């Protein structure tokens, strides 16, 4: 059985002034056990303007700081964009790519993600690639078709030996921000399928790549979801804004 360390990442979405970020990090550091006693890797995905505050506050704590988007080019006529090197320069550890909210509201495409995921790796950033189906796609029996497309496109330009450096977040869109968490069975089945897709490229990578679940994870439902054999942690939106609750979710990764 491969030893995959769970990864719990909080996604602040559009939340977090620099003052709020500073206060949050102070509280998180009070609540979170030392890195050696944590059952999971921990990360925060924060707005661009709060990245340096979090990097500074969390330095040496083992808590990873991630951005919520980036462009794949180093420079050019892309007004409003931020490059991989710019994030790395700030001391950021990684970046969330392809979140369904960016796909829906900001025209993020699988074609763009095909450039972004390897660009993040080349800059030394840890990418979390988000995939997931809509409610209609699930009802029409198209979940696997959608996941296959998103995973294959998003990872297409990542060399097989680097696949393991990517984290994939399976986030059914109908569960994001709705309070309707997937059943543990649905999460397990979809995540095992995502893992098998990685296995089509590299069996070894499939054994070691981390696949998170995301969608209305809360302290109350986290233990059951995180206990599933293929679920390697969680991407937590709303519930991550409360440091107490977020730390409980991290603790749930350690089992009952
Ligand atoms: C997310 O932002 O990725 C997410 C899963 O949000 P929520 O936990 O609020 O559903």
Account of the 3D structure:
The protein is of the alpha/beta class. The protein is 41% helix and 14% strand. It has eleven helices and eight strands. It has an eight-stranded parallel barrel with strand order 1-2-3-4-5-6-7-8, surrounded by five helices. Helix 1 (18-31) runs parallel beside helix 2, helix 5 (110-122) packs across helix 7 (143-155) and helix 7 crosses helix 8 (184-201). The chain is globular and about 45 Å long. The protein binds phosphoenolpyruvate (PEP).
Largest beta-sheet characterization: 8 strands, parallel, barrel
Strand order of the largest sheet: 1-2-3-4-5-6-7-8
Overall pLDDT, averaged?
A: 97
Total strands: the figure is 8
The shape is globular
Q: What share of the residues does DSSP label as strand, in percent?
A: 5-15%
- Helicity range: 40-55%
Bound molecules: phosphoenolpyruvate
What distance separates the N and C termini? 20 Å
Radius of gyration: 17 Å
The tally of helices reads 11
Q: What are the secondary-structure elements, in order, as H or E? A: EHEHEHEHHEHHEHHEHEH
Query: Could you list the spans in which at least 5 consecutive residues all have pLDDT below 50?
Result: none
List the helices and strands and how they pair.
Blueprint: E1 7-11, H1 18-31, E2 41-45, H2 51-58, E3 64-67, H3 84-90, E4 94-97, H4 100-105, H5 110-122, E5 126-131, H6 135-139, H7 143-155, E6 167-170, H8 184-201, H9 203-208, E7 210-214, H10 222-226, E8 233-236, H11 243-252
The structure holds phosphoenolpyruvate (PEP).
Phosphoenolpyruvate (PEP) binds next to strand 8.
